[in-house]
Design a protein that fits this description.
With 111 residues, the protein is α+β, with helices and mostly antiparallel strands. It has 2 helices and 5 strands, in the order E-H-E-E-E-E-H. It has a 5-stranded mixed beta sheet. Strand 2 and strand 3 form a beta hairpin.
Length: 111
Amino acid sequence: MIRIDAIWLASAPMDMRAGTDTALARVVAVFGAAHPHTAYLFANARGNRIKVLVHDGIGIWLAARKLHVGRFVWPLTTGADRWSLSRTQLDALVLGLPWQRIGSAGSITMV
């Protein structure tokens, strides 16, 4: 339904009360701009909620997901402040799986 050519993840937590305008401002602050057909992911400090902002070339989509048990696997804020993900890694992340272990061929590798 929505074309996504690139996926970016911000490692620093975001307040999940943020609406579309606040999330868009955060995208611009962290990534420099909101590019068309790009998804931007943010998590809360606890790691049990994520928001995904997608610029589809015409408008902005904002989606949220909450895990009732467990946490999303999120990179530490002490490393890079943003990460590029593949579609396979995104699919693993939203299920709560260790996306950082997904290789380019879709197989799980040792870290």
